């Protein structure tokens, strides 16, 4: 493909350097043109390491570059809204890391800004672009596992010793619900094609980590008496799993968001492994983004989807703080 979407990256976060930038470079549609940091030296070092042509010593400078079509934002959560809106006002399409904002009100402002500027805004849930989730939805719709009874999702890791990590700054949008709980929440919405009606969450609010939720366990009540139960954490052993439970079978996803894409289907007839291609989810995300930006296809996930996900995260955080069930 000769046509390329020219990307600029604001920030040198680990997710950008280790996953998203390599994914864009492996995509059919994208090329990384520039990267910006708060200091020129770090931007130049990262640009040299990843063979990015341009480096900028401020976020403002990269937005003035007319050779950039889209901006990827992996900044700390409290900066997502400001720099996404500034990028969109500069005429750039924006891919913003999850969670897209600190709350639903901020996400709505970002959605409004994208419409006003006439640009594409997307939340970076890369796992949604792997075809395995379409396959899982096919299995659910086929009735092979019977009537749906519930979903359980997990995403945990242990990074508690890194006390200066931005994930442990409450005012910056720290905590496990923001960081990894958002994954099973979005996955349940994707698989069920529905929005929950209430949330109840219990959390470990750690004084050693600015009272962010270092571990959280919750239940989201969906229509039809179906629930998502989930747990997420940044002070627990690593796992990222999903189980979809039906009346006559279940789908087991050992690596639901990162890692091997294959999954297992259990029925009364036994079990089988659904082998899935080893595709780069970040490259798939970049290609989908580009085709929407070019007007070749409609967005599978409009900005309103991100607003809806943030509304649920708001309820989860409120429930964790108040120890009460929160209706949506």
UniProtKB/TrEMBL annotation:
Keywords: Membrane, Oxidoreductase, Transmembrane, Transmembrane helix. Pfam families: GFO_IDH_MocA, GFO_IDH_MocA_C3. Residues 133-252 form the GFO/IDH/MocA-like oxidoreductase domain. The chain crosses the membrane at residues 7-24. Coiled coil: none annotated. The keyword Membrane applies. Residues 5-122 form the Gfo/Idh/MocA-like oxidoreductase N-terminal domain. This is Gfo/Idh/MocA family protein. It comes from Paenibacillus mendelii.
């Amino acid at each position: 493909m000769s046509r390329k979407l020219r990307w600029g990256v604001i920030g040198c976060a680990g997710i950008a350097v280790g996953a998203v930038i390599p994914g864009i470079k492996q995509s059919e549609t994208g090329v990384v043109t520039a990267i910006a940091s708060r200091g020129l030296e770090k931007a130049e070092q990262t640009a040299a390491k990843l063979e990015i042509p341009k480096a900028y010593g401020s976020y403002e400078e990269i937005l003035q570059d007319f050779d950039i079509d889209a901006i990827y934002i992996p900044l700390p959560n409290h900066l997502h809204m400001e720099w996404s809106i500034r990028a969109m006002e500069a005429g750039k399409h924006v891919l913003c890391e999850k969670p897209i904002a600190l709350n639903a009100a901020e996400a709505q402002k970002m959605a409004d800004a994208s419409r006003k500027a006439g640009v594409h805004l997307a939340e970076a849930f890369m796992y949604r672009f792997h075809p395995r989730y379409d396959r899982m939805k096919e299995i659910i719709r086929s009735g092979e596992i019977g009537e749906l009874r519930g979903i359980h999702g997990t995403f945990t890791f242990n990074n508690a010793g890194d006390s200066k990590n931005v994930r442990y700054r409450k005012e910056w949008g720290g905590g496990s619900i923001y960081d990894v709980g958002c994954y099973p929440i979005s996955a349940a919405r994707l698989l069920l094609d529905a929005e929950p009606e209430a949330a109840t969450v219990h959390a470990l609010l750690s004084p050693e980590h600015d009272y962010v939720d270092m571990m959280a366990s919750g239940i989201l009540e969906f229509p039809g008496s179906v629930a998502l139960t989930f747990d997420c954490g940044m002070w627990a052993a690593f796992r990222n799993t999903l189980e979809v439970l039906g009346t006559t079978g279940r789908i087991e996803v050992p690596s639901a968001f990162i890692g091997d894409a294959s999954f297992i289907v259990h029925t009364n007839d036994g079990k089988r492994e659904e082998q899935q291609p080893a595709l780069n989810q970040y490259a798939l995300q970049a290609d989908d983004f580009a085709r929407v930006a070019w007007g070749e296809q409609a967005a599978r996930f409009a900005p309103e989807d991100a607003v809806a996900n943030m509304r649920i995260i708001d309820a989860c955080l409120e429930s964790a703080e108040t120890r009460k069930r929160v209706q949506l």
